[in-house]
Write a structure and sequence with these properties.
CATH class: Alpha Beta
Shape: globular
Oligomer: single chain
Number of strands: 8
CATH superfamily: P-loop containing nucleotide triphosphate hydrolases
Number of domains: 1
Structural class: alpha/beta
Bound molecules: guanosine-5'-diphosphate, magnesium ion
Largest sheet: 8 strands, mixed
Order of helices and strands: EEHEEEHEHEHEH
Radius of gyration: 16 Å
Distance between the termini: 13 Å
């Protein structure tokens, strides 16, 4: 639920990185934090992180400059993907305006990706949001591992598993090298701002 503050001429919206545990959501955010310094308007905050596991969430505040005289502010969050943090994931999704689903290209994570997408659909529904209607972008992460000795899914396989019905824009990426990371976020922001524009016009 974006906040449109006419007095302060400010629009604030919320983007959430969703996906199974260890698919690379925090690494995406760390790359954004390092690379888009100009747009980052505060510290990246990781709440209760243990090693490479996010136990609560990560948060990054961004400012995208002005559109039609309004300051565009974006709050970016990641959820903890591990199955047991269901209630935290739901909490982080509250008021979401746009979602980036980070899927893991490792073959052993195939089921986890599909379960996490179902979990996203379910949690959105609890807030009365249809997954087919919310601005959603998919990212096939860890493409840098393809060609190494570990079994990695093809993009075609991942699209069949995850995107056959949704048919959302998807990006191959590596949160480690940064390939596709900015493109994923930018596309999600674009969709989200377009959707908000429509909502405010009709509301
Ligand atoms: N090779 C490779 N490793 C990655 C990539 N993204 C994340 N990782 C690694 O995967 C592990 C989990 O990443 P993290 O961002 O904590 O996952 P999260 O649980 O989704 O937040 C870490 O060891 C990362 O370094 C990627 O694009 N390529
Ligand atoms: Mg994390």
């Amino acid at each position: 639920m974006a906040i449109f503050n006419i007095k302060k001429r400010e629009l604030e919206c919320k983007i959430v990185y969703y996906g199974p545990g260890r698919s690379g959501k925090t690494t995406n955010m760390e790359y954004i934090y390092k690379t888009y310094k100009k747009q980052v308007v505060g510290e990246m905050v990781s709440v209760d992180t243990e090693g490479d596991r996010t136990l609560f969430f990560d948060f990054l505040p961004m400012g995208l400059g002005q559109i039609k005289g309004f300051d565009i502010r974006v709050q970016v969050y990641t959820v903890p993907g591990q199955v047991q943090y269901k209630s935290t994931r739901k909490l982080v999704l509250k008021g979401v305006d746009g979602v980036i689903f980070v899927a893991d290209s490792l073959a052993i994570r195939r089921k986890k990706n599909m379960l996490s997408l179902k979990d996203l659909q379910h949690n959105l529904k609890e807030y009365g949001i249809n997954i087919l209607k919310i601005p959603l972008i998919m990212q096939h992460n860890k493409r840098d591992i393809a060609g190494q000795d570990v079994p990695v899914m093809t993009i075609e396989q991942m699209e069949r598993d995850l995107n056959r019905q949704l048919k959302v824009h998807s990006f191959p990426a590596s949160a480690i090298t940064g390939e596709g990371v900015g493109a994923t976020l930018k596309e999600c922001l674009k969709l989200t701002l377009l959707s908000l524009k429509k909502q405010f016009k009709s509301g």
